[in-house]
Amino acid sequence: MTVTTTTVDAARTMLRPREDTRLPERMARSALTTDGAGLRTEDFTDWLEARRRAHAFRVGRIPFSDLEGWSFLESTGNLVHRSGRFFSVEGLHVTVGDGPIREWQQPIIKQPEVGILGILVKEFDGVLHFLMQAKMEPGNPNLLQLSPTVQATRSNYTKAHKGADVKYIDHFTQPGRRRILADSLQSEHGSWFLRKSNRNMIVEALGEVPLDDDFCWLTLGQIGELLRRDNVVNMDARTVLSCALAPEPGTDALHSDTELLSWFTAERARHDVSAERVPLRDIRGWKRGHGTIDHEAGRYFSVVAVAVEAGNREVARWTQPLFEPHGLGVTAFLTRRFGGVPHLLAHARVEGGFADTVELGPTVQYTPENYAHLTAAHRPPFLDAVLDADPSRIRYEAVHSEEGGRFLNAESRYLFLESDEQEAPLDPPPGYVWVTPEQFARLLRHNHYVNVQARTLLSCLTSQAVRL
Amino acid sequence: MTVTTTTVDAARTMLRPREDTRLPERMARSALTTDGAGLRTEDFTDWLEARRRAHAFRVGRIPFSDLEGWSFLESTGNLVHRSGRFFSVEGLHVTVGDGPIREWQQPIIKQPEVGILGILVKEFDGVLHFLMQAKMEPGNPNLLQLSPTVQATRSNYTKAHKGADVKYIDHFTQPGRRRILADSLQSEHGSWFLRKSNRNMIVEALGEVPLDDDFCWLTLGQIGELLRRDNVVNMDARTVLSCALAPEPGTDALHSDTELLSWFTAERARHDVSAERVPLRDIRGWKRGHGTIDHEAGRYFSVVAVAVEAGNREVARWTQPLFEPHGLGVTAFLTRRFGGVPHLLAHARVEGGFADTVELGPTVQYTPENYAHLTAAHRPPFLDAVLDADPSRIRYEAVHSEEGGRFLNAESRYLFLESDEQEAPLDPPPGYVWVTPEQFARLLRHNHYVNVQARTLLSCLTSQAVRL
């Protein structure tokens, strides 16, 4: 019994509060700090250019036959790597219960392993700073963007491709002097990935952290300034930053949390979505050429191949397939204040590759060209409100690109648009719901509520690139 | 602008608190009330017997060839209904990264549609009462058990089988005078169902509710008394009740919520689970006879067929397949107090049919016979601690059966066992974590954290059938 008593006494002192109530204030202070202890924002462009010069990056398109280690399987036509790892391009047959297009087939990226997207943070002068990396990804229009501290597939950090170690990875995979501030599985693009999710982690280092080449410490406020520029902060950084969203708790909302969760549950349950893998060779409506797989009407995206040469990447030269979307996307939240409290109009979107029917996306998330052939009745809701918006209503606008490791020049205009009752009614159409930033922050602690495009926009709130 | 101003004023009054802070107290009051305004607990057995007599139930085993509307498909050997609805029995090929058995094939129930399990509650004399139903399910060992108000597949309430209306369903599917207290998607048995989940709903009626035959109003405390009896409260009722778990908020815990979520995220990410559907005809290790599909070693479960005749069911006679597990399961939480706060030892369980690799299960969830052939080193952790437990440590014990609409005589002993450092250390082995009831309550607001067996045990906390 002595042992037990001692253990209980020890355990009593080991109990801890369930919530870190200081975190919202610490994040807010970092967001309000625009002169950090590390790199100055006005020096950022020069620093990034210096990193660009320090390495020789070259990316060129190649025919599929020049892919090294990749090939189309005899049996299925699927595009796979000989190691069986990394990812594969397969076919997907999707049926949905309603909407203008209820059945289609398409190429899809299958990458079942869960990667880590992680940002290491540390206090300097009492302010949280984020360790960001200048990282080349072959699909980025400008190749080099600001990425999280760590952006690693499991193949990366278990060295399936025999490359160099992933820097700082131990902070995310090993216990030690650290405090975990956020850690959840979040989906990636459901239109291009089959059930893909990554761990989104924010970890506070409690000891010394050496600063490596290609890395810099920035406050949230500095990152917010960079988020107002086109194509600087990469998708992986944006999604992790969204998980740091930490508004002051306690505000009321149009819907209680239980009502919001019930609405979401009903949306999940009411959609019949079936997504079955099919051989890539057999998919209807797509044709394979020497260097591209294209939709017959030229819509949506193409599958292409590139060769990459880079000095600071884990391996020095490689070839790989990429998805190249057609057209510039438009991705926007309509926002309103109700009773003084800002709300965002979210959309329960069906995407064929989601793990579970729907996730909350922005009000608008479309590539307008893909809908040009549809009749006015089938035109996506709210799209015209965004395309025709009075510039005075635009609270935020920047062009960002999606994951440059899988997507080539996948750019979208991201916007926050102040709205009114006529454009975005208090009682929105089915499938839409008003959500406060704080409610989004709660949802982001859990898996698969908020899609990656909405997370990009929410990262602008985290960093106060936009204030509602 | 007038319109806008009016709308904003209206909206201000429409804002509401995000949390219903009175709910835990209201649930606790119902749990402490053992004499309800409806049926008295001491009259319950007679009432249930009267309901049993009021209908003629007969369930008998039949060969597969006597199934009506069901057949094995030529192409795959899958067992399907001619309507394409209800469910089908198919094959599943599972591979997991570690454990004593890393690859297997098995029959699995595929039922993609999301059903509703819902309990209507209403205040009488200031105390919440739950509207429960005496419902026959062919697989229940005693046929008639206490079910939720509504237990309906989508086929049920959209009338795929042309039966009678589902009573009270409008309270769950239609807006009206009601308040939603809980509504989340929760998984069912991952070893027998492929990615099956149901909406678990608790809805408070704000208007009059007529009391139908086969239904009764009970307080949580009364249901707690019935949960201490064997095979009275059915699985569907138990899982919904677990979602009413509402301990007083604010207690500390061994792990902060962020740490707990991070631990869970790591468990989800570290398991490589692949579950692929295969034709039922081809599964290795199973053999199909005239009336059963059995595992070659006689382990796990059999697929069987039954004919059912019932008076109060939606249709009067039907035949269907059922899964019949072999042996009595043992399902238990080991519990300890740390610093005065009760904790349950949860296990991140891999089950082939889960939507996402692992969910939190009880400490122990096994059918001992299925493990008799394994060496001591592969004996499930904590199983012997439960089997050999000193009776004075047993805080709760009852036999409950799983969903009688799909499973035949699927019984398990459910236990809470008070434990100590030797049996269940403060620092448990990998895959196990200490969780407070309040943390479970938070997780149960979201999808797919807590498996159905753990939810049965948690329903005993909701109803104070056991106090820790």
TrEMBL record, chains A, B:
Record-given protein name: NDP-hexose 2,3-dehydratase
Domain dTDP-4-dehydro-6-deoxy-alpha-D-glucopyranose 2,3-dehydratase: 42-243, 258-461
Gene3D superfamilies documented for this protein: EvaA sugar 2,3-dehydratase subunit
Binding site for dTDP-4-dehydro-6-deoxy-alpha-D-glucose 2: S191, W286, R349, Q365, Y366, T367, N370, Y371
GO molecular function: lyase activity
Transmembrane regions: none
Coiled coil: none
Top-level division of the source organism's lineage: Bacteria
Organism from which the protein derives: Streptomyces regalis
Positions with a binding annotation for dTDP-4-dehydro-6-deoxy-alpha-D-glucose 1: W70, T153, R154, S155, N156, Y157, D236, E403, G404, G405, R406
A Pfam family hit: Hexose_dehydrat
